[in-house]
Amino acid sequence: MSLSYLCRRGTCGRLFQSRIVSQSLVVTPNLQRRAQTARWIARAIALLICALVIVRAITVSLAEGYPLTFWASQLVNGLVLGGVYALVALGYTLVYGILLMINFAHGEVMMIGGVAGFFALQLAQALGWMRGPAGLVAVALLIVMGIGMIGAMLTGVTLERIAYRPLRNAPRLVPLISAIGASLFLQYSVLLVFGVSPLVYQRPALISGGFRIGPVFIPYTGLIIFVTSLALMGALFVIVQRTRLGRAMRAVAADRDTAALMGVDVNQIITFTFLLGSALAGAAGVMLGFHNSVIKFNSGFIPGLKAFTAAVMGGIGNIPGAMVGALVLGIAESIGPSALGIPAEYKDIIAFVLLVLVLIFRPQGLLGEALAEKKV
Questions:
Q1: In angstroms, rounded to a whole number, what is the distance separating the alpha carbons of residues 153 and 133?
Q2: Which H or E run contains 200?
């Protein structure tokens, strides 16, 4: 029987397909075994690194003789730092989930919120609101935070309209370069307008000082940052998962074109996403100003990078993941230098080494990415 006859009858194609199937049946188990072996090797290396870090921490602790109260204080500092990172990381997560774009100007949006909050605080002090009864001071502080959030929201929406919307259909590298340019523009605009000297936040007596739980001192500003970050994350999660706007945001994140065909105003949803993320960053800027007592033109750059690191560590696009990644990063930065016996100036190295390890051993993040299958 000739080959041409077999091909005319379709037998040639069936023979070819059967050969491919038989080869795939041989190759697939080999690939699965190799993948399984690679996973086991990665887990073994990760466990080895963790064991070395634990041994080093125990050795340093015994040598230095740190008391338990020292570690408790460092843990409190880490939770406060993680709360700030979380509020900024949520903005990264929201924008990336919708547009698959990293808004590297988000740290500067936080800084603008802190600057707006500073001038609102100056006005409140001039009006005497910060010297009144506790109720009036609390309302004034909420107004200061609200004005800081509004300033950040206006900045974020303006960036989206001017720097990002015209490049929405461009290759991914183009909006990324635009975001870096916007970050530098905001930094040096504030530098030119307000100078290099930091803007000093004057805390009212209501939030000055702190309290003790046993021997551990907890500042009021630190408690406010941590509780507020948890509350805002919970509110954001409810908005995204339980409201009509949240459903529209998830629809745009899944498939922008199909969502538009179903009647969703894509531009409005993207603007609302920037509003939400910028509001959280503005709140973080005001609270960081009260906690550190100063805000200046580059105050948002390093926290912005750390918040991006936290978002990637927790799982980009995952709202609880951003919070978990931020808290892990804040605690690691606070405890890491003392535990490893290295100078505190090296805490940035710890943060970015953690990012590299997560990208190597668990690239989807601690809680996994939350992206639509079509985008992945």
A1: 30
A2: strand 199-200
- Structural domain boundaries of the chain? 69-361
Task: With CA atoms as reference, report the closest residue to 220 among 138, 131, 128.
Answer: 138
Instruction: Give pLDDT, residue 369.
Output: 64
Mode of pairing for the β-strands spanning 216-219 and 210-213? antiparallel
How many Å apart are CA 128 and CA 126, to the nearest integer?
5
What pLDDT does residue 370 have? 60
pLDDT for 154 equals 95
Write the burial class of residue 329 (CB in 10 Å: 0-12 exposed, 13-18 middle, 19+ buried): buried
Nearest one of 235, 324, 144, 239 to 358, comparing CA atoms: 324
pLDDT over 90 (residue 64)? no
Rounded to an integer, what is the distance from CA 97 to the centroid of its chain? Answer: 12
The amino acid that residue 121 corresponds to is L
Mean pLDDT is lowest, of 97-101, 153-157, 235-239, for: 97-101
- Residue 154 CB neighbours (<10 A): 17
CATH architecture of 69-361: Orthogonal Bundle (1.10)
Let me know: does 340 contact 56? Beta carbons within 8 Å.
yes
Question: What's the CA gap between 316 and 369, in Å, rounded?
Answer: 5
DSSP code, position 243? S
Contacts of residues 129-137 at CB distance under 8 Å and 24 or more positions apart, as own/partner, are: 130/202, 130/204, 131/204, 134/206, 137/204, 137/205, 137/206
Q: pLDDT confidence of 173, banded at 50, 70, 90?
A: confident
Task: Collapse the DSSP code of 218 into the 3-class scheme (helix H, G, I; strand E, B; otherwise coil) and give the result.
Answer: strand
